[in-house]
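Lab notebook, design round three. We kept the backbone fixed and only want residue identities now. Task for the bench partner: fill in a sequence for the structure below.
Input structure tokens:
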């Protein structure tokens, strides 16, 4: 025999199937028909708000004390929001947190509508996500960009999930159709009992999708991922897939090309020392080319007054290179 909470939830579930809610953007159903205490649902961001287009999956866990106590609700695709814990996905909502605010007349639809409204009506006071609250208060444009990245990521996450099959009714573990007791006409789409919902944190999908995002809310907004790694050379090299030295070389080259395009490529006027060093370098190159390697002559007891022929050849070459014209070298 089922508990009172189970029968209340089954009754509400059958009512939702016979008379679908006119409310837009909210859906909910049990994870399994034999356990009415665990539900999952989706909430879409309200139209004409920054959350428009987002699809966020939630779970609702009811206790045996339902309707007297509210269910435990968690976001599985966790929004970047001041009133939603970014680690657990638990929303900060009065009707869920305060038993004095909760009323037995509240339904699952009431909870989903309150969560949908919470997305577009954040409260920065006593926020559970202080980072989002500070961003909303101090830099609304950046907060808007973060929300838009979050909305795009939620669509990617939702597209990768196979929670229901739109072309078939609920199936049991052996593949047979499942129909709730007392209603032979209902065709409900329920998650198979062997599947599990995987929690995806905001940090995980924000890091993934922000790095490849190409659109921005405004042209002057910065990429949060690049801003986060700008002071860490190791993260930069990992992000761009280049060694640190090669990354710095590419950045220097790009900067030089930018300066050349913006300000022109002016020739550098050499100093006297640079001119002298260039001449000596040219002379050394010519010596290597034209003077073959010679071994030192054997020691002699009598030193020649005239000297060896190769010494005179070297002196002549040195005298010749000393008189070279600078223009001829260039």
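Proposed sequence:
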């Amino acid at each position: 025999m089922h508990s009172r909470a189970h029968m209340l939830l089954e009754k509400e579930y059958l009512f939702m199937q016979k008379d679908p809610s006119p409310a837009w953007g909210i859906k909910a159903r049990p994870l399994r028909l034999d356990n009415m205490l665990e539900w999952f649902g989706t909430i879409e961001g309200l139209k004409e708000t920054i959350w428009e287009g987002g699809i966020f999956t939630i779970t609702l866990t009811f206790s045996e004390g339902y309707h007297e106590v509210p269910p435990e609700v968690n976001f599985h695709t966790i929004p970047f929001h001041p009133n939603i814990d970014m680690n657990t996905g638990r929303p900060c909502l009065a009707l869920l947190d305060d038993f004095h605010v909760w009323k037995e007349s509240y339904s699952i639809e009431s909870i989903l509508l309150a969560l949908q409204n919470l997305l577009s009506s954040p409260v920065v006071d006593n926020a559970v996500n202080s980072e989002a609250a500070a961003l909303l208060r101090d830099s609304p444009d950046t907060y808007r960009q973060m929300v838009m990245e979050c909305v795009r990521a939620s669509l990617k996450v939702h597209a990768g999930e196979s929670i229901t099959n739109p072309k078939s009714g609920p199936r049991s573990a052996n593949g047979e159709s499942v129909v709730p007791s007392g209603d032979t006409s209902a065709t409900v789409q329920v998650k198979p009992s062997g599947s599990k919902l995987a929690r995806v944190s905001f940090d995980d999908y924000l890091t993934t999708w922000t790095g490849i995002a190409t659109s921005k809310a405004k042209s002057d907004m910065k990429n949060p991922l690049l801003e986060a790694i700008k002071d860490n050379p190791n993260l930069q090299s990992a992000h761009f897939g280049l060694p640190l030295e090669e990354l710095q070389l590419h950045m220097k080259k790009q900067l030089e090309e930018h300066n050349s395009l913006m300000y022109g490529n002016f020739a550098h006027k050499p100093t006297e020392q640079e001119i002298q060093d260039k001449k000596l370098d040219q002379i050394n190159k010519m010596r290597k080319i034209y003077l073959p390697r010679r071994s030192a002559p054997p020691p002699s007891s009598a030193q020649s007054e005239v000297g060896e022929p190769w010494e005179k050849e070297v002196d002549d070459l040195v005298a010749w290179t000393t008189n070279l014209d600078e223009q001829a070298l260039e």
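Keep this in mind before ordering anything: The two ends are 102 Å apart (CA to CA).
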